[in-house]
Each structure stands twice: as structure tokens, then as C-alpha cells.
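Example record

The entry below shows one chain as it appears in the dataset: sequence first, then C-alpha cells.
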Amino acid sequence: MIPEKLNSIICNIINFDTRPLNIDDGAETIETWDSLAIVQLISYFCHEYEIKFDPDQFEYFSSVRGILELLDKNNVDLM
């Protein structure tokens, strides 16, 4: 299950309000989840949670599953 806070953050950034996101959603399933949205997601989490991501981690931001995995690795609690 996706934490409501994460769902809200992602939907706000990608301008998506059709339905709640699911774990398999991402750039391949949502048209507005484009490269600019990925940069905005990276920027948000860098600033909001003071995390520094390596460029090789940017690919995680192309899906809900990837973001959850990366946030978990960085001990970010969204509950």
C-alpha cells in the first residue's frame, strides 16, 4: 500500500488526480509523469528530506515502486 502522503506528493507534482496511485504506476503508465516530473520529484525529496541522491539513483523516480524503495533505503518515514 502506498502511504497517503507519498500519493499526495507524487500526484501533486505530476498533476494527476484521476485516481489513487498503485505500486506499479510510473512514467510508463501515466502520461504526465515525464522527465520534468522526475526532476521535480528528485528536487522535492532532496529539499524536503535533505537527501542527496547519486545520479545512478535517478531512475528510481520513474515509478512509485522505485520511489518507495529509494526512500526506504534512506530511512524516510512517510507515515
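Notes for this example: Residues 16 and 32 are 7 Å apart (CA to CA). Residues 35-49 form the longest helix (15 residues).
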